[in-house]
Design brief:
It is a single chain. Among the domains are: 14-97, Phosphorylase Kinase, domain 1; 98-272, Transferase(Phosphotransferase) domain 1 (Transferase(Phosphotransferase), domain 1, Orthogonal Bundle), CATH 1.10.510; 279-330; 463-553 and 572-581, no CATH class. It is built from 33 helices and ten strands. The strands form three sheets. A five-stranded antiparallel β-sheet has the order 1-2-3-5-4. The longest helix has 30 residues, at 766-795. 38% of the residues are buried. This is N-terminal kinase-like protein.
Amino acid sequence: MWFFARDPVRDFPFELSPDPPEGGPPGPWVLHRGRKKATGSPVSIFVYDVKPGAEEQTQVAKAAFKRLKTLRHPNILAYIDGLETDKCLHVVTEAVTPLGMYLKERAEAGGLKDLELSWGLHQIVKALSFLVNDCSLIHNNVCMAAVFVDRAGEWKLGGLDYMYSAQGNGGGPPRKGVPELEQYDPPELADGSGRAVREKWSADMWRLGCLIWEVFNGPLPRAAALRNPGKIPKSLVPHYCELVGANPKVRPNPARFLQNCRAPGGFMNNRFVETNLFLEEIQIKEPAEKQKFFQELSKSLDSFPEDFCRHKVLPQLLTAFEFGNAGAVVLTPLFKVGKFLNAEEYQQKIIPVVVKMFSSTDRAMRIRLLQQMEQFIQYLDEPTVNTQIFPHVVHGFLDTNPAIREQTVKSMLLLAPKLNEANLNVELMKHFARLQAKDEQGPIRCNTTVCLGKIGSYLSASTRHRVLTSAFSRATKDPFAPSRVAGVLGFAATHNLYSMNDCAHKILPVLCGLTVDPEKSVRDQAFKAIRSFLSKLESVSEDPTQLAEVEKDVHAASSPGMGGAAASWAGWAVTGVSSLTSKLIRAHPAAAPAETNVPQRPTPEGLPAPAPAVVPATSTTSGHWETQEEGTDTAEDSSVADRWDDEDWGSLEQEAESVLAQQEDWSTGGRASRAGQTSNLDPKSESDWSSWEAEGSWEQGWQEPSPPEPPPEGTRLASEYNWGGSEPSDKGDPFAAVSSRRETSAQPRPDSWGDDNWEGLETESRQGKAELARKKREERRREMEAKRAEKKAAKGPMKLGTRKLD
């Protein structure tokens, strides 16, 4: 029978890296890089080869193996696995670098900051305090070679080869036999008796002083050099002198040394150390303390080391969100730390958390995600956007909070390039149609128009043909002046997407109507656009061969490169009007009233002024918030010029700033006349948008019905005639409603986009109906009184206790 011996080194679940060894502490150990075979995760492997005749060193190595395996502390080198055979010892720890090598590498890159050094020394002193005060152990080997640094920049204490018990039950300190290590022994051990040692920590604190000197000044040449502090910071010098004093009795306990350095003005009293100490105890902190900590963390991250942010702060942020219910407060520091990650790490660590955050119902979480989307949008792939993010984002279009609706619209600028055909051309257009036609916030309607112009190049050719002309035409009839400006600029920015037929028959008629707009800013932009479109038509008329070149983009497939013309004007409209929306929301916490009493566009000088329209009696909400806020708040926003054919198209903020002044110039009745005027919203245009929501058609949205001629004097409405019935008809005259609709303001209603009812005619003809209803009630009252009088006369008064017999 054959027995096959298995090699334990070959079966060991870790393997050494083929790279040359990194070295290690002076002594028998050699430090190798390694990795775990199953996962490939990096580790460090300390290897000791057993040699004949070196029994003493072998015993020291085995003792270090045992100590490292049994001691567990955050500041002591973390043991993972080990292998002990007759030929070798393998000790696997977390991936670390010797401190000497780490300092050398960082010196070539600019050196370590005092913040990092203060926290590193804090960790080593804390490890010594644990050994001396909690375990009654003397390390006996504190020096540069016994300290290691992990990937997060955390300092770990190793080199446990010569450790012994402070209680003396394990014998005295083992003999080192290594001259490089013996130079760190305190002077009181020179006699060899050890009688001068008064405290158990005195020798280790002397060695700590040697470590501090080497960290700031380099390798220690001789013990006499300790008298000169060199580059040691002034705030640390007094405490350093206590460590290297000749009298061992005055050397402080490690715990007291930490306390002294953490005092106000001390070397270890800084934001970096405080942040690390909080992170170590974050699991036992109160929720309010965590919220405050994460809010203040973002300000400090810029001064913290990159490795520390990636490997220590980031895991704590992810844990706090996933298990600690930290909420939206972790988003700002999370995305700030995410800048230090490469694309692969970002996909693995940040994106899963972001996707999960989008499904949150917390409004603060949602609005912060939308505001900071530009920081992570490039890491999102199209399937993730369409299946896991967009379905949650679109809920913001229907939110009752105007700030969330606005941020949702702005986020579409970033999401549109990654949306599929159904989400972009169908779902998103439905929500845009509803917002532009019915949202009660003027700036949000304006931003919707701007965003549509920006993403127009991503739409399919059929959707562009059906949507853009109708949408921008609708915007030019908006009572909010910046929305009308945005409609004009939308036409200009997407000029290459229209055929010459559309330019002549659809766009120019709309723009010509704006040349008598009450706002000079709207008129100026309209004239510029008209001249540009006319120039384009004239060039094709002069040379018909240019038609194919001019219309090359009309039927082209969606392409990001086609959006260059819209890029310049989309930025100013979104960022500029957003501040106005925010101020309106702050000024009016409740939902802002709809624009019902909007100034009617007056007629320029030289034209007969139309009679002011009558405002319905039931409409009591005022639209003054538009003109007042528009004239004051938008002045603070920066202006960005739009350019088409090297022509300055102006700034929305500048035009919005002059709205109020222009209204005063054009209005003949001042504020008194404003209350009795209405907007010129076209009912045909609004109804077409509503029908598109239900039927998916914008094709007729650009058409304007000719205004109906006023009826001759003496003409009566159809409802005023008695058509043969016994009583007057209780139904309103639909023709009267149509005729009066031009005189009433078309107030946007925050209905859902799918609720496409047709009660607008009855609502807008309230005056005629109110009169009919009043007459009907009066007639009914007289009829009931006559019937009651007739019954009373026929039967007489009833007596108490008698039953009425029919």
